[in-house]
Protein 1
Amino acid sequence: MNKVILMGRLTRDPDIRYSQGERQMAIARYTLAVDRRRSSNANGENTADFIQCVAFDRAAEFAEKYFHQGIKIAVVGHLQTGSYTNRDGQKVYTTEVIIEDQEFAESKAASDASSANWNRNSASRGAAASQQGGSAPQPAAQNSARPDPSAAAPLDGFMNIPDSVDDDGLPFN
């Protein structure tokens, strides 16, 4: 059985491309920063794995419309490995999660607050890593043209909850 379940934050906005041919299909690639449980570095900070994910068709269109850097999501998929030869003639091995299902892992208000905090921390992690001669994922520029999910029409019977509604006022807390 090949099944992967992950929860983490996007390290940057999804990269969206479209396939060639008579039926163009959206392909979204994004990286999830997934915290390691009970693991920390020498400074006592939590460590994370950076997992490459690929979504196709409607899942890719959903990612393009609603996902952005720092948002916390949960994904279900399967692991796929591959290889290619780069320009230098070296064989490069790849591992990525092919997304079967993806969903938000926190409320919009919590996501907005966490995304801003995560983006600030990413910048400081990158600065600390460069001082130590290492590298850290660099945050991409925020996409200011990103649509507001609360302004979208209801999706398949789910109602939109306005931002002004506090989580304490929801019946499923």
Protein 2
Amino acid sequence: MAKQIKITLVRSVAGTLPVQRKTVKVLGLGKINSYVVRDDNPVNRGMVRTVEHLVKVEEI
């Protein structure tokens, strides 16, 4: 089984760049404190790196 990460949105996307807003939406996050569980792979890690100041990441 692949490792997984829990991604939680902890800051608002208001005032961020459009590409960062789209990344948050593609990750499946909407409101503050919403979270998703994703596989830990380079694609998801790259998206998290784009919005690292808005999210909290935990390994499961």
Protein 3
Amino acid sequence: MIFDEYTHPKDRLVAVMRRIYSSGMTTTSGGNLSILDDNGDMWITPAGIDKGTLTRDDIMCVKKDGSIVGKHRPSSEYPFHKSIYARRPDVRGILHAHPPTLVSFSVGGVVPNTSVLPTARNICGEVGFAPYAIPGSEELGRNISDVFAQGYYTVLLENHGVVTADSSLEAAFQRFETLDFCARLIYRASRLGKVNYLTDVQIDYDAADRNQAFREGDFDAHSPEELELRYQMCELIHRAYRKMLFTSTEGTFSVRLDDKRFLITPYGLDRDVLTPGDLVLVDDLRYERGKPLSRAAWFFREIYRTQPEVKSLIISSAPYVMAYGVANAKFDPRVIPESYIMLREVPMFEFGAHYADVKKVANVISPRHPVILVKNGFLLTCGKSLLEAYDRMEVAEYSAQAAIAAHTLGGMRPINDEQVDDLVAAFKLLK
């Protein structure tokens, strides 16, 4: 979503609802969004209208004086939107929906602990909990706004769903999407064992800026080869986002141009709408002026310098494979032959290992060990091309999904050592 001061609230609401619905995070009749504009008027989605076919003409406006403009009725949940805006003057966008995994948490009365990953905690913060009341009632409005009045931006509703709020609807969406991602990760990790969470000290350690040696610079004309790689990166980034391998605010793609130069995704920009011009060119310790440099630039630079055969690197938090990293469970990729051929053994590192000893990690991620996991951190894949690194990310996620399902069906029976030896010989894999 790319909005500016010329984008009408109607169009913002339609775009965000379309994204929520297409991702399976709400139903035809479920969910509601609103925006409070500078005049104090509230723009809100309508009651009883198909969320899958919502148009700008369906959006309702509740004026500051209480009068209603539009051809439908405002959402039946209008009272809690009104209450939140009244008690939180910093809030200008509110989102409410019923994604299945978050509903399971709300039914169980369990608030997701966002400290499962640094990015989740940084985006969502702590999550509040509002007791049940009849949908659309003044009581529900009081229950929810009471929790928001305590300073929360994300609130789980008992037997109902979730509400997020922020200074813009786009920021509220990022909180919502990240919390749902976090909940799915926690649920899958719980099927493997104990879910492990990060401490505040660990989260602060992760937040430190390690790109301080980099400086902005100006670059000459971009070659056709570079432009083609920019295009290919964006195509695969958009695909990965649609497949829910990461959220709109995380996931790092990179491809090497030569011994010193590489392209990398920018920090914080929406992955679903990245353009080739948004990507950042890095030349040793210089990067394109005016662009937000990825927090992983220093890490990728070290790997590229250490592993000349590695041409591409991808960081993701794909929720099935990361469930192993959160449960501190060994991920066995010997699910099917393709899994082992593409992934090999998948070494696992402690959280923050690449900060403590980057050379050690850079010496492992290689054509021999093309995939690694960092506990409560990320999945890192590499390849001799961007597509190969991407393929490994997908194969890791699909293999983890199959392995977790196998555990619930009576246990996994991996390919045995003798069969692995046959694969190594047949496909001439590195030893």
Protein 4
Amino acid sequence: MTENKFSALSHERYSCRHYSTDIPARSIVDSILGLAALAPSACNRQPWRMMIVGPDDIAARAAVKASYSREWIGEAPYYVIVCGVPAEAWVRSFDGKNHVDIDVAILTEHICLAATGAGLGTCWVCNFDPAALGKGIAFEDGVLPVVILPMGYPAETTMPEKKRKELNDIILRP
């Protein structure tokens, strides 16, 4: 990928909170997740799982909405629930730091960038109630939901302005 393509994706990607009523083909979502699965992980352990909740998954959609009380989330035709499997993750020997959340974060942002490249919007949702989500969706033992990504065509016709700190404010110097 050239710098220009990555630059475009970085500038175009934003937290989409309003979705069109147009429903992307499931094949587009599957393609996005296939690209995201190429994401790196510590020691290539890939301690993640992805669950796709589609437009017809009534009970699972209700569980997502019950776990996150913002109305806008109901507009998204798809949700990708990104899960971590701590038992499969690399653990740093010096201090016991389990890298499952880091690996899940890398995968999640790969999903977001791939979705942007396909013309879809996403938004990281981490402020959800896992117990409420688990009442409507059965997760395997040891598989923990970490992020809910609503996904669909953005309803916005213009991208919101990005507000970021200045580079000098975030770079540490030795």
